[in-house]
Design brief:
Layout: E1 19-21, H1 22-27, H2 29-37, E2 43-47, E3 50-55, H3 58-69
Parallel strand pairs: 1-2
Antiparallel strand pairs: 2-3
Length: about 70
């Protein structure tokens, strides 16, 4: 897994994420969890070269949920 580090507060786009194949995510799930939970680096999982899912830290998830409920000005 490539080590693109972003701070928890920086904005990222889907293009900023490294995509790893689903098979690699399955085979290296412990490494994936460490990267997501402790290094706060989201992981894009792909299948047949197509983006399928993003794994993020639970705190980042709750922040996204909170921001989705906050009315924009």
């Amino acid at each position: 897994m490539n080590e693109k580090k972003k701070s928890a507060n920086s904005r990222i786009s889907i293009d900023d994420l490294d995509m790893i194949p689903a098979t690699q995510a399955k085979n290296r799930f412990g490494d994936l969890l460490h990267r997501v939970c402790y290094e706060k680096i989201p992981v894009l999982i792909g299948k047949s070269g197509r983006p399928m899912a993003v794994v993020i830290d639970v705190d980042q998830y709750w922040e996204l949920k909170r921001l989705a409920r906050t009315p924009s000005k």
